[in-house]
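so my prof wants the structure for this chain in the tokens format not the other one, which i didnt know existed until like an hour ago. anyway here's the sequence
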Amino acid sequence: MKTERHFKLHGLLILIILILLAAFTNVEILRRNAEQRARQTAQPVSSPTVPAVTPALRENLSNFENNTIEIFRRVSPSVVSVGNKAIFRDLFGFQLYEIPQGVGSGCVWDKEGHILSNFHVIYEASSIQVTLQNGANFSAEVVGVDPDHDIAVLQIRAPESTLTPIPLGTSRDLQVGQNVMAIGNPFGLDTSLSLGIVSALGRSIISMTGRRIYDVIQTDAAINPGNSGGPLLDSTGRLIGLNTAIVTTSGSYAGVGFAVPVDTVRRIVPQLIAFGKVPRVGIGIQTVPDHLTRRAEVVGVAIFNVQPRSPAGRAGLQGLKQTPRGNIVFGDILVEVDGSPVKCNNDLAAIMDRHQAGDIVKMTYLRGNERLTVELTLENEE
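here's what i got, hopefully its the right format
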């Protein structure tokens, strides 16, 4: 009986083993078949809703969009970030630490590493950092400043291969309504592009020194804190202005921005690089304040006095005079310069602002009932 049960148990054990082997074999076959089907059906996945970006897709864009893309690609390496740090001192004047004052923008001027920006961007800076579009940082030195026009020239020691000078245009031939672009770092958002038009020409704004900047370009391209010192470009990608100021009630973009015209920039920057400052030009006169000439119902710029060895002195121009009875009477009154009417001191300053030493100007003035004209060579003034 024991032997019979032993054989029965042995047979049952063999049966169980065979069943397990068969099950394992089936599982393995199913696994291999699944792998084979996966290899046969596996294909590279590409989403039909997100096609790869290729240059061919630009054919679907408008000419205006393609032009904007190309200008940004070409010109954006010329735009830099300008960081300003100031020394924080205690009540006794001891230096404690440097603190960031803000970030503005700038443009690469030449391969020598000169950087164009606004004076107010670097005002009271103890140290200045310039960051190129590729992320490289450089300490910058101040080469020269012209606070009256809110212009500053810095210099960095960067390899020439990393510097892309910005292409220069002109501002004298601008037209209201033409397209413009602004590139800068609004609120620290580096290399941001905005679009707009020339909204108006011939505007004037007040610089930090209280002096007027003339012939300023008004634009509705978005300009915010951080854009200052960045370029305003025409539709060919040329620099036509240096973004400088905005009109706003909130401190941010309100649709009215201003740029110093590039014709002014082109005249001033070489002088800043050469001399560190911009000598003022003139003819050697002091003028009567406008409110006094208006009170006397005089239209024009009345000469107060004349420096003897100046262009005006050599030409015989005359200032205020005192009569034998002690009365003060007007001398010569400037009414026209190079064909442009001069009705106030601002008119004369605006014309002088477009010239440099050595330029010859034709001045028309009134002496009593006579209308006289003289040619004068402008000289630098202290």
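also thought this was worth mentioning. The first helix runs from residue 2 to 41.
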